[in-house]
Amino acid sequence: MKNILVTGGAGFIGSAFARSMTRRYPDYNIIVYDKLTYAGNLDNLLPISDDENYRFEQGDIADRAALRRALEAHHIDTIVNFAAESHVDRSILSADAFIHTDVVGVYILLDEGRQHGLERFLHVSTDEVYGDVDEGYSVETDVFAPNSPYAASKAGGELMVRSYHVTHGMNTVISRGSNTFGPYQYPEKLLPFFITEALEDHPLPVYGDGMQIRDWLYVEDHVSGIDAVLHKGVSGEAYNIAGEDLHHNIDVTHRLLALLGKDDSLIRHVPDREGHDRRYAMNCDKLRALGWQRQYSFDSALEATVDWYRDNEWWWRKIKTGEYLEFYKRQYGARLAAAE
Ligand code: NAD
Ligand code: TYD
Question: Is 84 touching ligand 2 by the criterion CB < 6 Å?
Fold first, then answer.
């Protein structure tokens, strides 16, 4: 492993991975390949922009010719795929881009990677492929039951990875992360959205009763989990990466308001997300057996995250314009009006 193509590396988790790998493995060349959709942001890569072992290429994973050029130009031997449409609410508004990237894009990455003679392919997936987990904890062999178009597109991508391993003998591994948070996360996901909205004293739209449960994982722990799977995972296998820190959305909201010194009166209970999964929870014994363990508690990581958004308005203020405001209006306009 020497020349790694980090697809989707200008997004939230991919950029954290690229920043970490560039510094942690000076012998590796890290080439970020990203389409720069609304969620891709070169500001996320500024800390490593002058590093000698880092390069950036703009491109779509579903564009065969561009992908092939990048694989050849950089003598790529490994792909770590973060590229995806990643927001459930957007997949409810329209699933087109999700099928393009999370299903067709993954297929083209696999197909070009195989023809190129790739040594290793790591595909980043999600706990959402398991669907709603009423009780207990999902293990890697559980049957998929995705409920949102996003989750279904990620499940479809995973099945293509499986087929290229079984049929073509490709060396593949899959990681399934739980709800991730931390610096540089696009402010549409719950935590960065609520933190930045609360900083502006805007209302916080909690879907339904707010009693849904998510398993929160700090981005640095997600990245170290992917590193472990990349280097030690068995070909053909999938590994859960979980924070094992389960919280109700409403409790998370109260906590972040307290950290910001803001009042609970900002909370609005709005009409629920369609098809909303109540609970996600994963067992990650299989990953622990590779030597991984979580380094950050939810409380300390939440505090660090709140501080980061408070200190880095330059990063999120320029995002919350244009397309972002259009999405906000479509997603929350009627909901917030219904809650008044
Ligand atoms: P993100 O939305 O912040 O970033 C996605 C990146 O992919 C962006 O930089 C975007 O420009 C790029 N991209 C999109 N379509 C592309 C295409 N066709 N070709 C090339 N690049 C493209 O997402 P994220 O939160 O960093 O998630 C990264 C991966 O981790 C995704 O695969 C997601 O499904 C998975 N995941 C996310 C979470 C989470 O809580 N955020 C949890 C588990 C798994
Ligand atoms: P999100 O960050 O969209 O992640 P996911 O849907 O992939 O779990 O949402 C996390 C939880 O927060 C989820 O139960 C939906 C809820 N949520 C709200 O209540 N209001 C919001 O405005 C958002 C974005 C999410």
Answer: no
